[in-house]
Amino acid sequence: MTDITGVMTQDHRHCDEYFAEAENACLDGDWTRTEQAFERFATALEEHFGLEEGMLFPRFEEATGMTSGPTAMMRMEHQDLRAQVEEMRAAIARQDADAYSGESETLLIMMQQHNMKEENILYPMCDTRISDAAETAGTLAKRLAEAGA
Amino acid sequence: MMPAGAALGYDATPPISAPLRYFLTAPFFGMLAGLLLLISPDVLVSRWTPGALALTHLATLGFMVMVMVGALFQILPVVCGAAIPMAGRIALAVHLLLVGGTVALATGLYKMSPPILTVAAALLGMALSVFLLSAMIGLSKVGSGTGSQRDVRLALIGLGVAALLGLSLALTRAQGLPLPMFSMLQLHLGWALLGGAGLLLAATSWIVVPMFQITPSYPRAMIRFWALSCTGALTLWSISVLLEWKILSLILLGLIVALTALFLFTTLVVIGKTRRSHPDASYRLFRLGIWSLIAGLVCLLSTLVSDAPMLRILAGVLIIYGGFVSVIEAMLYKIVPFLAWLHLTQSGIKAPNVRQLQPEDGTRNQLRIHTVALVILLMAVLLGNDWLTRLAGAAIVIEFGWLFFNMHGVLSAYRKTRTDSPARRYSSAA
Question: Which domains does chain A have, with CATH numbers?
Fold first, then answer.
């Protein structure tokens, strides 16, 4: 049985793979494939954010009483990442490879710095502070598996 | 006590000046090293010439440690959840002491001047104790964890041990302390390159390589035990060197070499599995660095069977300039544009993307100039030709000039965007 950190970290890597597929397709100059891979990435990312904002963060906030702490910051970063996803979508619509590569590189670093904080600090805190962490991990894994199916 | 999560926030991000002041000064020490080769190419005759010692410390303290300390102001909050108290002011103070100390040390070594070496020891001693103490205060408020979080701590300890050994050496030279010079030198090298720089490279690689190059993770056992084993092996080796247990120290050295090789080859395998099919210039700089470290290790091993002094100089060039400098340049081209972007975005300003802030052509040219300079320098050492050494020196001046030009370019774009867009989203973070 894996913990919250394990489940959510695994899902970050899953999103990374879709991200790489879209980047590779764009560098190959194949816009149809870029768009398909990008939309798979955007959907997976939104699913991940949705689970955090709708389930994981509220449980953490309930367990710790910290509502304006780390989770508030992570929500704010989700907003920045969503804005960045829109920039990439706009670049695909214009078929502007330079803009796509610049926005995509920016999103990657932003997203990985965000992931680092979650994987190294927030998720381990969730695992220790949420009282039914094992059950939460199980539900998250199930929901992510359903979304990926 | 500050909860660990508090360091996650925008407010905990150190001011952009904290890391940037280090990143913008470091290239000048690289240029000074190039100038030294240009002016007195005979410094490479032996690693013990005053010039060679000055050159080594311009590269290691002036460039490597300068960038590493700057990067730690950024890494500690993100990786360990530890915020350095009063990061802006501490960064300024440590920076001034480090710059002054490095200039004094390089001058003191070059002129073999006891008074200047004493000043250098005092300034560097203060710089590193203030930095390490602030880092420890930040880290003491959060749990130690495993993997990268623990390994960053081990690297800081390694850096501290290397600094203490370096200070004792400087004072031995300056004040004639009765210490075993040769043994201390060996330990200083081991702790500086592996216990400090090597461990920090590994601690960041566990996280940064899989995330930014989209590769599988390093093997779990490696993340758990590698850095700990290195620190353990270095400690036992140090004791055996000081007690002059020759056979045991040779066995432990073998273990240290094997551990280093294990990390380097694993890194090559891991980055070889990247999902990004078109590697960028930063990736290629990083890969060049790892191969160069491997070549340096081979040269070090060769010194066991050959007395040729050239081998040790080759090892130094390959490890410090070909290895660490490549890896650090690869990192700077990722981190500096991102920091500019991050700070603009946090102020609610629409930021140019990272490739607009730092066009990929700039990074590609850095890779080209660095590779050419490295090849010329290696040939200069192999052939013992002064003119080739001068040429390498000139190439190195151009290389670090180009690095400064690009890093400064990012800062200018950052300032211009800031002045042109007065909007603020998070007033507290501005």
Answer: 4-148 (1.20.120.520)
